[in-house]
Amino acid sequence: MRFLHTADWHIGKQLHGFSLLEEQQDAYQQLRQIAQEENVDAMVIAGDLYDRKVPSEDAVNCLNGMLVDLNRQLKMPVLAISGNHDSATRLSTGQEWFSATDFYLNTTIKQSLTPVVMGNTQFFLLPYFEPHQVRETFHDESIRTVQDGMTSILSEMTQRFDADKRHVLVAHFFAAGSTHTDSETLVEVGGLNAIPVDQLSAFDYVALGHLHRKEALNEATVKYSGSPLKFSTSEAEDVKGCWIVDTETNPVTVTFRAITPLHDLVILKNSYDQLMDPNQTFNVRPTDYVAIQLTDSAPIPNVMEDLKRRFPQIIELTRVNPRQLTTPSQTVEQIKQNPTELLSDFYHQVTGEKLSVNQKDWAASALVKAEGELGNATY
Amino acid sequence: MPSLKRKGNLVMRPIKLTLDWFGPYEHAEIDFTKLADAPLFLISGKTGSGKTTIFDGMSYALFDQTSGQERDATSMRSDFASPDDYTQVAFEFEHRHRHYQVIRQPKQLHTKRGGGVTEKGASVELTVFDVEGHEVDQVTRKKQADDMILELLKMNANQFSQIVLLPQGKFRQFLVAPSDDKAAILRQLFHTQLYVDWAEQLRTAQKQANQALRDQQTAIQRDVSDLIWTEPNQQAIDTGTVGKTTSELIELANQQQTDWKGQQATLDQKIIQVQQRVNQLIQQTERELQTTRMFDQRDQQTRQLAELTDQADQMKKRQRLVDQLDWIQQRAPEYTQLVQLTDDMDQMKQQLRQMDQTKRQLEPELLQLRNQRRELTDQQPQIDQTTANRVRLESLVASYQRVDELNQELKSQRQRVETLTKNLKACQDEQQAVQNQSVKVQARLDQSDQLHHDQTVTVTRQHQLERLMDQAMLVQEQKKNQQQLTLLVQQKQVEVDQADEQFQAANQAFEAINQRWIQSQIAVLSQQLAPGTPCPVCGSTEHPYPAVTTVQSVTEAEVKVARQTSDQANQLLTTAKAQLQDYQAQCQQIQTKLTSDQDQLADQLTMVTLESVAPELVIKRLTEEQNQVQATLSHLTQQLDQLDQDRQVKQQLQVKVTELTTTINQLQEQLQKAEQLQSATQATLTTVQEKLPAEFQTAGDLQVEIQRLKAVVAGHDAKLESVTEQGNKLQMQLTELTSQIKLTQNQLTDNQKKADDLRNQLHAAVVATFNVTDEAAHDQFVTGYEQLDRLAELRQAVTAYQQHCTEVQNRLTELNQQLTDRQRPDGEATKLARQAADTELTQLRAEEGDLKMQITQNERRLNRIVAGMNRQEEELTHQRELGELADVMNGNSDYSKLGLERYVLQTYLQRILVAANDQLLKLTNGRYQFDLDTGEASSKKRAGLEINVYDDNVGETRSVHTLSGGESFIAALALALALGEVIQAETGSIDVEALFIDEGFGSLDQDALNTALHSLETVEGQHRMIGIISHVSELQDQVPTQLQVISDGDGRSRVTIQTEF
User: Fold this and answer.
1) Using CB atoms and an 8 Å cut-off, which of residues 324-353 of chain A contact chain B?
2) Cystine design at A81: which of A127, A247, B438, B712 (Cβ 3.0–4.6 Å)?
3) Which residues lie in coiled coils (chain A) (predicted)?
4) Predicted confidence (pLDDT) per residue in B379-423, tens digit
5) Is residue A305 in a domain?
6) Taking CB atoms and an 8 Å limit, are A299 and B952 in contact across chains?
7) Are residue A37 and residue A127 in the same domain, yes or no?
8) Contacts of residue B955 in chain A, CB cutoff 8 Å?
C-alpha cells in the first residue's frame, strides 16, 4: 500500500512573534493535494501536531479543521502519534471514536503494541515516550534509558509481526547520528537520549518525526519527513515536503514530494546601504520572513526601523562580525601595578599635568599611612 | 575575550541539607547528589511555601546569617515548634577530598530536664571527615568554626549570596544601582579599600595643611599683637599716628629695637665699671681674711706644743713595751707549735678512750649473735617437718574445692525443688478455684429451665395483651364509626326533609301546570268541538258549554318538563329516604356490634384481671401492661443470654481444669526427679567430706593454715640469714678497732717526746732574756704573747707622737717668720663698702635684664613674623598643590568627578561587562551589549560606574534603566553570572558547584522565558548544578528534575525530589 509520511506540523507555533497559521493552512492544502495526486491509501503524521501542550483556540480550530477535512471529508485514513510537544492526554480526547473512520491516534505505549493493519502493512504507531512510562508499562524497574525502553518495546512488537505483511514503525525520537537545528528545543532543557538506527532494522520502513529537517538523517528506510514549514533560520535552505512510501516493493520505494512555502524564510547577508538602496532588488516578497545578517560592523542608528520599512517581516537581525563595544582602557594587571605609578597616570589623565615632587612625597606618605591602617583594620 | 577559567580543584560541592523545625519545615532533607545528575533543576512550589527558606538554611548553616538578611536567624524557628522540638540546620559539603558537616542551632527556648523552659544559646558544630569517612577534626567554638568556614570558602555571607544565590530581585539591583552603591559592592569584592583610605589620607592631609596655614596666619597676627611697645610708641599706634599694617608695625618695632640696643650698650658699660670695683673690694676682703687666719693659727700651734711636751714621759714607757713585745713575737711560732702538739695529744687520748669503749660494747654483742645462730641451726629439723606438713595440706586443697562445688550444686537443687513445690501448690490451688467456679456456674445453669418457663408465660401474656389491645382498638374504631354514622343519619334526615319539600313543591307545580295544560287542551278541544262530534270526555254530542279558559296556554313540552322535575324530585326523595333507611339500619347494626364487642372486651379483660378499668382508660391501661410485660421479657432475655455465656464459661473452665491437671502431673514428676537429684548430690557431698580433716572446715581455712606454715618456715630461714650476716659484720669491726688503738697509742708516745723538748727550749730563752726565774718564765711569756695584738698599735702611737712634735715645731717657726711685722686687720669697713657696691651692681643688672628680655622677645617675635610671612608664600603654593592632588584623588576636582578608586573600579567593572557581554550577545542574538558610561557625571554619586546598553537594532546606546522587564532580567542575569566569574577569578574564592536563581521568571512572557531557560542551559555548560526557584507553572512542565516544596496548608511544608516526569 502507499502512504504519505509527514510530521512536526507544530500548529500554533509562532516565528519570532509572527503567527504561522496561514502558512500552515497552505502547507496542509499542498500536502492534501499531493496525497490525492499520489493516490495514497493513508497519511502518516509522526508526532508534534501541536506546538504547545495547551494550544491556543485558533490552533485547535485549525488542526481540528485539517483532520476533519482529511479524515471525514476526503475519507483518508490517518495514522498519527503524539510527540514531545503535544500533550498526550489532551490529544487523545475522542480516541475511542476515531477508529470508526480509520483515524488512529496513539498516545500510549500500550496502544502502540497492537499494530494497525492496512493493506499489506502492519503499522506500529509509537508515540513519544520517556523511560518511566516504559517501566510502568512493562513493570520492569531495570529500564532506565530510552534505548533500554526501545529494546523492550521492539521485542514486544516483533512478537506481533505477521510474516506475510510489511512492517512500518511510526515514531518520534532522536535517532543517533542525526543533526538538529535551532528550532527543536532540547526537550527537557537537559538533553535527549538517542536511539541507534540499527535497533530498527526489523522494520521495512521507519517514519520518524521530531527533527525538522529531512536532511538530518541519511538512511534508506529510516526517514525524518521534516516539518512542512521552515521554523528557524537554520532551515532557510531546506526543501520542505513529505515522503511517499510504497510498500508493494521490497525494499520499499521512497519518493520525496516537495511543497512550496506560502511565505518563504530568506536569509539576506548584505550591508545596510545595499539593503536600503532602492535600486537594489532582492528576491524577497514583502510577505516573506527575512533574517538579516549585516556585514557592517559600525553601529547604525535606527537600523531596525529603517530595515522594517523595506522588509516588514524581519525575524532576526544579526551581524556577521559582531563588534565588541567595550574594550577596557586598561587591563586589570595595569591597575594592580605600583599604586604610585597608577596615581601618576590617573592624575595625568585627569588634569593633563604631571605630579610635582612634593605631590609625590605626600602621596607616598599618605600611602604608607593608609597601608598601615589597612593592616590593622579587621574585616 | 576568552571566558575566565575556573580553578578546577577549588570546588565546593553541596551534598546534603537537613532542616529541622526551621521555617515551615518540621524535618526536610535535601539530597543534592540526586539533583546533581541533572544540569538544571527546578525548585517549585507555591508562593510562600518556603522555597527561599532552603537557602536561608544553607546560608545560615555556613555563615550564621540568612540569605536575604531580612529574616533574622532566631526568627527562622518554626512557629509551630514546641519547646520539646529542636531547631537545627545541618549542611554537608565536600571540598578537596574532605567531607565537612556543619550543624548549627539558633538561640531558642527549650524544655529542660525536670520541666520548665530555658533559653538555650546558639551553638555550632563543624566536623571534618577524611575521604574514608573517619573523623579528622571537630570544632565547636563559634568563632573558630566561622573562621574555618571563611577560610575554606574564601567568601563571606554577602559574597556567597552574590555568587551562589542570586536572590529575589537583588541581582537586578546591581544593574540599576547608582555608582555609589555599585562602588560599595565592588570595593568589597576587589579590595580597593586601600585607594579609598589613601584618598582619605590625602584629604585629611589637605585639611590639615589648610588648617596649618590658617594657624600660621593666626600665629603671625598674635605675634604682631604681642609685640612690646614703649609708651610713646604704643600711644602712637593707638592714636593712629603709625599705621596698623604688619609691615609698618615691623618697621616701627625695628626702630624700637635699635634704640633699645643702644640703651643696653650704655648699661653694659656701667655695669662693667661697677663690677670692677666690686672685684677689687672682694680681693681686699680676701687678703684681710688670710692675715687674720695666720694669727689664729699661730696661737693654736703654740698651745699644741705645750700639750705634747706634757706627754713625753708616757711615750718613753710605751717605747720600752714595744721593744719587749717585738722579742716575744719572734719566738711566737715555737710557742704555737708547742700548744698544737699538746692539743693533738689530748685528742689522741680522747680517741683511745672512745675506741676502747666501743670495743667493750661490741664484744658481748658478737657473743650474743653467735649464740642465736646456734639456736636457730638447732631448730632446722623442726622446720623441715613443717614444710612436709604444708605439702600434705596442699594436696587436700582440691578436695575442699570439690566440697564447695557440691555445696553450690546442692543449694541450687534445693532451690529448684522449692520452686517446683511452689508451682505445684499454685496449680493445685488454681485447680480448686476453677472447680469452685465451675460449680457456681452450674448452679446458675440449673436455673435455666425455670427461666425458660417464665419466659414462655410472659410471652403468652404478651400475646394476650396484644390481642386485647387489638380488640380495644377495634371497639374504639367501631365507636367512632357509630358516631360518624349517627351524624350521617342526621344529615341524611335533613336531606330527606329537604327533598321532600322540593318534591312537594315540584309536584304541586306539575299539578298546576298539568291542570293548565288540561285546561288548555280542554279549551283547544272545546274549541274544536263541533256539534255532532262526541265529547272526548263524556261522549255527548252536544256541547253547550265548552270550557273556556283564561289560563295561559301551556305547551306539552312545559308539562313534560314539569313532570320530569317532579319525577326527579320524587326520585331524589326516594333515594334519600332509601339512604336514610340504609344508614339507620347500619347504625343499628353497628350499635349492636359495638355493644357485643364491648361486652366481649369486658369479659376478656376480666380474664386478665383488668376488669376494674373504665372503658375509656382501657387502652391506656393495656399499654401500660404491655410495657411492663415487655420489660419483664427483656429482663428474662438478658438472664437467658447470661446463661448462654455461662455455658460457654463452663466449657472453658472444663478445658482449664483438664490443662491444670496435666500441668500438675508434670510438675509432680519434675519435683520427684529434682528431689532425687538432690539426695544424690547430698550423698556425694557427705562421702567427700568424710575424707577431709575436721579442723579445716573450708578450703579457706586450709589455705590459711598452709600460708601459716609457709610463713613459719620462711621466718626461720630469714632470721638465720640475718643473724649470720650481722655476726660477720661485727667480727670485722672488732678486728679493725683493735689495730687502730694500737696505732694511736704509738703516735701519742711520739708527740709527748717532741713537746717536752720544745718546752724546755723556750723556757731557757725566756729566762735568758727577761731575767726571771724558770717558773715565772712561762707566765711571763704567755702574758706577753697575749698582748701581741696591741704591738702594732703601740708602735704607731709612738711614731705618731714624734712626728706630731716635729710638725708643730716647724709650723710655729714658719708662722713666726710670716707674721714678723704684721697687725690683725679690721674687716668691717671693707664689708660695708662691698655691700654697697653689690647692691648697685644688682640694680644695674636687673635693669639690663629687663631691657634685654624685651629686646629678645621682640626680636623673636619679629623673626617669627618675618619668617612666617616668607613661608606663607611657599605654603600657599603647597596648599594649592596638595589640594589639587587630594581633590583629584577624591573626585572633588573640577576636572572630573571620578576619584582614583572609582577609576580603578571602572576597570574591574569593564572587565565584568566584557565577560557579561559574552553572555548577553548570545542571549539576545547579538542585539544588546553592555557599555560603561564614560561621560561626565552629574554628581559624584553617579560617577563612573553607570552601565549603558547598546541596542544594535537602533544603533544607539542608552541607559539600562530603559530596558523592559524581560530584557532587564536577561541583562541582569548575564551581569550577575559575569560578576560571579570575575569574583572567583580575582579573589580566588572557591567555586560553589551550584548556582541558584531565586524568582524573577514570573515577569517573563513565553518567549522571554524560553530565552531565559536557554540561557541558563548555555551557562550550565560550565559543569555547574543550577537550580531555579520559581512558582511559574510552565517551568514545571519543562524541567524534569524538581525539588518540590509542598505546603500542607497549615504553615508547614515538606520537600520531595522528582527526577523525571
Assistant:
1) 324-332, 334-335, 339, 342-343, 346-347, 350-351
2) A127
3) none
4) 888 888 888 888 888 888 888 788 888 888 889 999 999 999 999
5) yes
6) yes
7) yes
8) 299-303
Asked if A276 and A304 sit in the same domain, the reply is yes
What distance in Å separates residue B1059's CA from the closest CA in chain A?
10
Chain A residues with beta carbon closer than 8 angstroms to that of B1016: 189
| B882/A374 Cβ within 8 A | no
Distance from B1048 to chain A by nearest Cα, in Å?
27
Same domain, A279 and A338: no
| A102, part of any domain | yes
**Total structural domains in chain A?**
3
Of A189, A358, A374, the CB nearest to B197: A374
Rounded to the nearest angstrom, the gap between the alpha carbon of residue B63 and the centroid of all alpha carbons in its chain is 15
Inter-chain contact B929–A303, Cβ cutoff 8 Å?
no
Domain ranges of chain B: 227-307+808-874, 451-612
**Does the CB of A192 have a partner CB in chain B at under 8 Å?**
no
Residue B1019 binned pLDDT confidence (cut-offs 50, 70, 90): low
Q: What is the ipTM of this complex?
A: 0.72
A321: contact with B, CB 8 A cutoff: no
Please spell the DSSP secondary structure of B448-497, one letter per residue.
Answer: HHHHHHHHHHHHHHHHHHHHHHHHHHHHHHHHHHHHHHHHHHHHHHHHHH
**Residues 6 or more apart from B121 whose CB is under 8 A from it?**
B107
**B518-569 tens-digit pLDDT:** 777 777 777 776 777 777 777 777 777 766 666 666 777 888 888 888 888 8
Mean pLDDT for all residues in chain A: 86
Cβ of A347 within 8 Å of Cβ of B929? The answer is: no
Q: Does A314 touch chain B (CB under 8 A)?
A: no
One-letter-per-residue 3-state SS of B199-215: HHHHHHHHHHHHHHHHH
Q: Could you tell me the end-to-end alpha-carbon distance of chain A, in angstroms, rounded to an integer?
A: 81
For residue A353, the enclosing domain spans 332-376
Q: Of A189, A311, A324, which to mutate for an interface test with B (greatest number of B Cβ within 10 Å)?
A: A189
Amino acid making up residue A264: D
Cβ of B907 within 8 Å of Cβ of A335? The answer is yes
Q: Which residue of A has its CA nearest to B898?
A: A350
Cβ–Cβ below 8 Å for A302 and B955: yes
Specify whether the CB–CB gap between B292 and B824 falls below 8 A.
yes
Among candidates B885, B893, B931 on the partner chain, residue whose Cβ is nearest the Cβ of A362: B885
Q: With an 8 Å Cβ cutoff, are B907 and A189 in contact?
A: no
A325 domain-assigned: no
The three-point CA angle A286-A288-A289 to 5° equals 120
A310 touches A282 (CB < 8 A): no
3-state class of B1046 per DSSP?
A: strand
Q: Do A238 and A369 share a domain, yes or no?
A: no
Model pTM greater than 0.80? no
Number of other CB atoms surrounding residue B15 within 10 Å: 16
- Does A130 share its domain with A101? yes
A108-146 pLDDT, tens digit per residue, is 999 999 999 999 999 999 999 988 889 889 998 888 888
pLDDT tens per residue, range A65-94: 999 999 999 999 999 999 988 989 999 888
Give yes or no for A186 touching B (CB within 8 A). Answer: yes
Torsions phi, psi for B869 (to 5 deg):
-65, -35
DSSP H or E run through A266: strand A265-270
Among A244, A243, A315, A314, smallest CA distance to A276 is for A314
Chain A residue nearest residue B206, CA to CA: A362
Best A128, A350, A359 member to test B by mutation, with max B CBs in 10 Å, is A350
